[in-house]
Amino acid sequence: EMAENASTVFNVHVPEFVDAIWVALRDPTLAVREKAVEALRACLCVIEKRETRWRVQ
């Protein structure tokens, strides 16, 4: 939700999010993996829409 509702704030935390999401993506529980996929999808949408100056970093 933070990625979608506060994308400017979230942009600063993208590297940490990407590092942390891998644990959930490998979780043995299907529901956890599905939510992780939703979160990663939202993150990637935010990255796609952000300004060019953020993409360089």
TrEMBL record:
Q: Which InterPro entries match?
A: ARM-like (IPR011989), ARM-type_fold (IPR016024)
Task: Note the Gene3D superfamilies from the entry.
Answer: Leucine-rich Repeat Variant (1.25.10.10)
Put simply, this protein is called Uncharacterized protein
Domain of life of the organism in this record? Eukaryota
Source organism (scientific name): Nymphaea colorata
